[in-house]
Amino acid sequence: MRENLSSVQTVTADHFFNPRNAGDAGEPSFIGRAASLSCGAHVRFSIQVDETHAVSQAKFRAAGCEVLVAAASVLTERVTGLSTADAAVVGQSPATLSEELGDEPGKAQCVEMACEALLDAIRDYSNAAREDWAGDEALICTCFFVSEHTIEREIQRHGLTTVAEVTRACNAGAGCGSCHQLIQEILATNDLPR
After folding, report:
1. How much is the pLDDT for 101?
2. What backbone torsions phi and psi does residue 28 show, to the nearest 5 degrees?
3. pLDDT for 152 beyond 90
4. Where do the DSSP E strands lie in the chain?
5. Could you give the angle at which helices 84-91 and 108-132 cross, rounded to 10 degrees?
6. 44 or 29, which is more confident?
7. How many domains does the chain fold into?
8. The CATH number of the domain where 181 resides is what?
9. Cβ-count burial of 121 within 10 angstroms (0-12 exposed, 13-18 middle, 19+ buried)?
């Protein structure tokens, strides 16, 4: 047990004293922020996304404790090269990262804050991608590139009534979550005969 704790502390200390990817991603970049009113810590993620929808660069700036800096540093390494959908899945797992960094009492919020900033940056990308979409159909989920037509078809085919059901049927909404409101609107306006 002591060896495991020691290796966890080493990972946290290594990423705190030698943070990876500190700074700002090259332009164009997408920005996400998170802060804590209770301790005054804040973190800012910037990501660059390539034409294959993969995170080509992830960087951060943080002012806070060693766990916040280490979590942000680890996240930048972990998501670089992943699709935005896979990067969002990583950001949705703060408990896993917290465990890897030592599960220090009272520090889980620091890991959650780093994950929240990453997800916010992915949402920023998703919103921009949705605005720039040049396809024939309205793009709803940019993480998995699911169109409005696909979502409507799944609603009709399976009688779906919730965002969670739509996500299970076609992955829409399984990434950063920026499309949940749009999916809800489609569900509300497409009370189609089943």
Report:
1. 86
2. -75, 140
3. yes
4. 30-35, 42-49, 55-63, 139-141, 146-147
5. 160
6. 44
7. 2
8. 1.10.10.1100
9. buried
